[in-house]
Amino acid sequence: MRRVQQFVDVAVPVRTAYDQLTRIEVFPEFMEDVVRVEQLDDTTARWHVEVAGVERSFDTRITEQTTDQRIAWTTLPDAETEQTGVVTFQRLGDDRTRITLQIGIDPDSVVEKFGHALGIIERTITRDLQNFKAFIERCDEPTGAWRGEVGQHAES
Length: 156
Hints:
Layout: E1 2-10, H1 14-21, E2 34-39, E3 44-51, E4 54-66, E5 70-75, E6 82-93, E7 96-106, H2 110-117, H3 120-138
Antiparallel strand pairs: 1-7, 2-3, 3-4, 4-5, 5-6, 6-7
């Protein structure tokens, strides 16, 4: 599995950045390849993406979620491309947050392997993080939030 890590600093409090990133239904507004995301339950989502003219759908499950700190996920076993991810939130000041995104991806097709070799995945992640920065900094407040916790760090 190949790993990519990128970060972006945003001029909003941790809570605002975290809350917005729990609202996956609005991801198409700042992720250019994402057509639609459906929240199936508290931990499962169905993603519809179009990359290089090829449409795909896959399901992900949240494996760990700690409010204002961390969200981790993985694709479900039937996905064409295996992917894992973690996004973390670091307070840099009252109105400044560092968002770090780590993606692990196992490119399946020849096109995906070629794209990874050319650095397309890294550029896509950088672009989407910059788009998120512009999106969240122009919003007065997040479009919603899910403040629950999932996984090993969740309190009982």
